[in-house]
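Review box. Two proteins, two foldings.
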Amino acid sequence: MATFLLLGSGEFEPWSTEVERTALAGAVGDGSVVILPTASASEGDTVFDRWAAMGLEHYAEAEVPAEVLAVKTRDDAMRPDMAERAERASMIYFSGGKPSRLADVLRDSMLFAAIRRAIDRGAVYAGCSAGAMVASRERDADGRGGTSWLFGLGLIPHVSFGVHWDRAARIPGAQWWLTSRIPEDSWFVGIDERTAILGDGSTWTVHGVRGVTIRHAGQLSRAETGEAFATG
């Protein structure tokens, strides 16, 4: 069974340790986490290295073995050694940055194929912010889905994910604009900051500080920390 851990913000902070332990407890792999700050690579090595160091420190404090994969470009994502290392891990973790950049690096790469195989055999896909957004449904062949979701790689093929969702609520019109071109018959989940959802792509539990907003067939609902919800 596939397992996904998606965070609205706040990667590598103490609040997420408990839900990460829960996810790893049932994971299949070598027991390690591979950290990929790929979505931040366009901001330069200083930013990439800062996220990498934060991830290593976070997992060292949790006594979980972790390694950074320096995947910054599409060429890196086509390297067999990177793909092989990711496929062995119990959790593959993409931190935040630019979702479009992350999708462009991963799409149809050896690394992404290896990640799919790892998920299929029981590893956890974890993503924060951009890392969560690329798990979204792919854009439909007829163009439905809107330009906001061009970066979806289809790991969860029937859901689009928004992040920093409570912050978006403070910007007039932002939530409407971000969801206005998502087909009504698909699911949307907006994840608040410092909040995570853990599930198999259809059933989820909410963890962390706040909650999530769910939209389907024109109906809105909320699930708060400690609650469960379903997307199909």
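Next protein.
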Amino acid sequence: MSIRGLKYAFATLSCGLLAVAANAQNEGNHRIVYTPTNDAIVAKAGNITNHGGTVITSAKVVFIFWGPSFNNAASADFSYARTLQAYRNQFGTTGEYNTITQYSGISLTNLGSGTADLFDTSTPPTNVTDSSVRSKVSSYTSSHGGNNTSTIYEVVIPRTSYSSSGSSTSCGGPGLAYCAYHSWIGSGSSATKYSIQPYPSCSGCQVSGFSDVQDQEHFVCHETREAVTDPTGTTWFDSSGAEADDKCAWSPTPFIGTGGYAYQYEWSNANGGCIRTR
């Protein structure tokens, strides 16, 4: 679905489950151009290969919760945020994460062992642009000892905001084209890796029977593993440009796995297909 490690497309129900893919041109290491396509097409492109880049062998994830509701005990978002933290804290040692250890020496890891998560209680704009996400991440790193190159900085926004990249938007925006994406600032081994995690408030970003936070967990699963296996768009993807998680996005259907949390299937070269755990 993405050719340089940048986004997780939305699903629609129309004569089966469809998805939007990013046949993306990387402009300035952060911008994305999205082109709709049927997800089943990229899923048949064969194994992923290493195109010469590096992976994050022992990754960390830092959440930047942007919005007052995430730290307001009277709001449902208070529990939402803490559930995502608990999910992150166990994900890196699960069988669902272990699938990617076959790629370039990636190891099981405590994803929650990095610097502290940030609860930014300022109100984000309704339209959270990619530029504003990068600014938020850069502000965090400058006040927390600089960029840690093994860390993925994941910005979570409330349902009152939506993400945009160019004319494409997430749930809540005027042109739904994706549910989340990962990208980077800079280049090479020193690049800052980040992700935007918009609130899954629309049917195109929801799995039947999942709660809102479970939908978000499965997007965190997708973007985290892709940022680890293809942090700057130069490492593991297939001949169509699809990264490991793109190849299994939405089909098979995401599932409830280790710890009662939500995950999606992952592409395994060793198994020649999408698997739950390894």
